[in-house]
# Entry
Amino acid sequence: MKHILVILSITVSLVGCGGKAGSEGPDLHKVTGTVTLDGKPIQEGSITLDPTSGGVPAMGGIKDGAFEFEAAPGEYIARFAAMKVTTEKDEYGELITESLISDEYNSNSKETASIKAGSNTLTFEIKGK
# Structure
């Protein structure tokens, strides 16, 4: 019986943990979307939203062209990453990876996103190297 009460109290305390990054964090809102690379869904990669005027970046993984994560409302620069494994090996015998995405969509990205309160859906169509 004690175990059931402990589990119940933990469950009840976790129910109130949504909506904020923490008691002092910003309000976070759902961000979903798709990313295509040269017209095809990115099989595996990541997206990072860097705030244009301070704040905390938001990021998530891309799988089969889709992503889902939470971010605070605001304006962002979107940056993308996706790698492929080559058949070449480095000096340690490890397979070398290279980026599928040019700096135009990563460190020099001009892609923007606007996140508002509530649910947000983003679509990005980017080009490879």
About this structure: Helices lie at 2-15. Residues 1-21 have pLDDT under 50 and may be disordered. The first strand starts at residue 29 and ends at 37. The radius of gyration is 19 Å.
